[in-house]
């Protein structure tokens, strides 16, 4: 293998790694980001925030056994929203109804006790 081939391979690998962490549109209309070994999608729907968790291959995971806290920027102020399992997602109440993209972070604890964090800008 030549030096040129090695440099090209390293550049392609680095670009793939960088793209793996880019926020993207999720299947439920929210923003999907990486959080440890999971993918997390944040969806604001009126007076409720929904958090969908999937595995590294984007296969949905049941919310049973997960717990979490969303810390969201609403009207310029950080707001803590406790998240509880609600079937296919985790859910929490929003005091101020919101729609669309949100800024903040979601802290999750999985059924195995491992924690992860997803940041939404």
CATH architecture grouping: Sandwich
Query: Which shape, going by the Cα principal axes?
Result: globular
The count of strands amounts to 8
Contiguous uncertain segments of 5+ residues: 14-19
Spatial strand sequence of the major β-sheet: 1-2-3-6-5-4-7-8
Run of helices and strands: HEEEEEEEE
Structural class: mainly beta
Mean pLDDT across the residues is 86
The fold-level CATH name is Immunoglobulin-like
Give the end-to-end Cα distance, rounded to a whole number of Å. Answer: 41 Å
Radius of gyration, in angstroms, nearest whole number: 17 Å
Give the helix tally.
1
Helicity level, as a percent range?
10-25%
Give the biggest sheet.
8 strands, antiparallel
Our count of domains comes out at 1
What is the CATH level 1 assignment? Mainly Beta
Beta-strand share of residues: over 45%
Element layout with pairings:
Layout: H1 3-20, E1 24-25, E2 31-35, E3 38-54, E4 67-74, E5 77-85, E6 90-100, E7 103-109, E8 115-120
Task: Explain this structure.
By secondary structure, this protein is mainly beta. The chain has one domain: Immunoglobulin-like (Sandwich). It is 15% helix and 54% strand. The chain has one helix and eight strands. The protein has an eight-stranded antiparallel sheet with strand order 1-2-3-6-5-4-7-8, with no helix packed on it. A hairpin with a 2-residue loop joins strand 4 and strand 5. The radius of gyration is 17 Å and the shape is globular. Keywords: Signal.
């Amino acid at each position: 293998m030549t030096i040129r081939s090695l440099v090209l391979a390293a550049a392609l690998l680095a670009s793939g790694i960088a793209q793996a962490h880019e926020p993207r549109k999720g299947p439920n209309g929210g923003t999907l980001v990486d959080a440890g070994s999971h993918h997390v999608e944040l969806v604001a729907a009126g007076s409720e925030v929904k958090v969908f968790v999937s595995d590294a291959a984007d296969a949905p995971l049941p919310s049973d056994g997960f717990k979490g806290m969303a810390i969201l920027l609403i009207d310029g102020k950080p707001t803590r929203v406790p998240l509880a399992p609600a079937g296919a997602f985790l859910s929490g109440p929003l005091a101020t109804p919101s729609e669309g993209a949100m800024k903040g972070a979601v802290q999750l604890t999985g059924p195995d006790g491992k924690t992860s964090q997803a940041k939404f800008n």
